[in-house]
Design a protein that fits this description.
alpha+beta, four-stranded antiparallel beta sheet
């Protein structure tokens, strides 16, 4: 949602905005499509070949700028997106039009090393809370010097200007990075970061953390996908690219199913995990409505209508879908779809006991026993 928030600013200023999925970006970078104000339907994704294009922007002042903003790691499925998109997007620049890249690395850097020489994004956002778990609300925006000069800053507060007068709101902005730091920064929170960096050193750095978590991830996936009911139906639907480990991070997003295939409410699984096994897992769309709605089969217009009408019940949304009726002809019927799923994330301090505990909990709580009733009473 943070990237979407940046898009909201751009849209408010009249910029063309396009939401695209991985396929769209790859096609554009390969030269088979062009960026535009295309829109995606069908629960997420978009395409870059809709109406309008960047050439339609006001070109009275050159060069013009466009921004490609994407996460290095999808915070919903845990999919890792190519870091070479940065250089490929830069290569799209011309003398009159320049492409800049914002790389959201907040979910990426806690587990994966990031070399900004190899991945020269213009802007890189990171969260120290996600890296260390403490303190909350402290992060950083890493900005290349030449990109900092492009940013047009309007609001200013104490500490961001070298001088200012009340008349005509005259101001002389401070050099970067001070010009982007309005007011008193959280110096007490920043001081606590030294303990986080000390911990990283004790854990032997990002490379060692990545090896440790990857081993847990591999074991966990093999066991999660093997869980099934007595009728051989799988217990879980696991989202992401776990069959391609190099494209998948240590995050497991899944739905829990009963023997008949219906879905156990995600929040019910979350509460049961905490009560029965002391496990902290999360539920919902995890700040990623695009991929979440696409995976759950919910169209954006259905999500909007349900939100405005408060039309959700115990973790599900009721939508109309075409189904084959008793006569063999298609007809519209109400269908319940989950509005969120379950996420289990691994990190530097995760242990084998943690991942084994989750597998054991899911097996004992939700796998039916020889055809008997499974755990879980939520609607599906």
């Amino acid at each position: 949602k943070s990237v979407l928030g940046v898009g909201a600013y751009a849209q408010d200023k009249g910029a063309l905005l396009s939401c695209a999925d991985e396929v769209d970006i790859e096609q554009w970078l390969d030269g088979s499509s062009s960026p535009s104000n295309g829109g995606g339907g069908g629960g997420g994704g978009g395409n870059l070949t809709g109406t309008g294009s960047w050439q339609a922007m006001n070109s009275s002042v050159l060069p013009t700028y466009s921004l490609l903003a994407y996460p290095a790691k999808d915070n919903y499925e845990g999919v890792l997106y190519p870091l070479d998109w940065v250089k490929k997007a830069h290569a799209k620049s011309t003398a009159n039009h320049r492409w800049l890249v914002l790389l959201d690395a907040a979910a990426y850097v806690p587990i994966h090393p990031l070399d900004l020489t190899e991945t020269p994004a213009d802007f890189v956002s990171i969260s120290f809370y996600k890296v260390f778990g403490y303190p909350t609300g402290v992060g950083a925006l890493v900005v290349r010097k030449d990109a900092a000069d492009v940013l047009h800053k309007v609001y200013f507060g104490g500490g961001a200007v070298d001088d200012a007068t009340a008349e005509d709101i005259w101001r002389l902005l401070s050099p970067a990075p001070a010009r982007f730091q309005d007011g008193t920064i959280d110096f007490l929170g920043i001081a606590q970061l030294q303990f986080g960096f000390d911990l990283l050193d004790k854990l032997k750095g990002p490379q060692a953390i990545h090896r440790h978590v990857s081993a847990l991830q591999s074991w966990m996936y093999q066991y999660l996908r093997s869980l099934q009911h007595s009728n051989k139906r799988p217990l879980l639907t696991i989202f992401g690219k776990h069959e391609k480990p190099k494209q998948q991070s240590c995050l497991f997003q899944f739905l829990v199913h009963r023997p008949d295939g219906s879905v156990v409410a995600a929040e019910e699984v979350e509460l049961a995990a905490a009560a029965a096994a002391g496990l902290h897992i999360r539920t919902g769309c995890h700040c990623n409505p695009g991929q979440c709605l696409k995976d759950l089969g919910i169209y954006p217009e259905e999500e909007r209508a349900a939100a405005l009408a408060h039309n959700t019940s115990h973790g599900f949304i009721t939508v109309m879908r075409k189904v084959t009726g008793a006569s063999g002809k298609p007809e519209l019927k109400p269908v319940q779809l989950p509005i969120g799923s379950v996420r289990a994330s691994l990190g530097a301090l995760s242990t084998f006991e943690d991942v084994y505990g989750l597998v054991k909990f899911l097996r004992e709580e939700y796998v039916d026993k020889d055809g008997g009733p499974p755990g879980g009473t939520g609607r599906g």
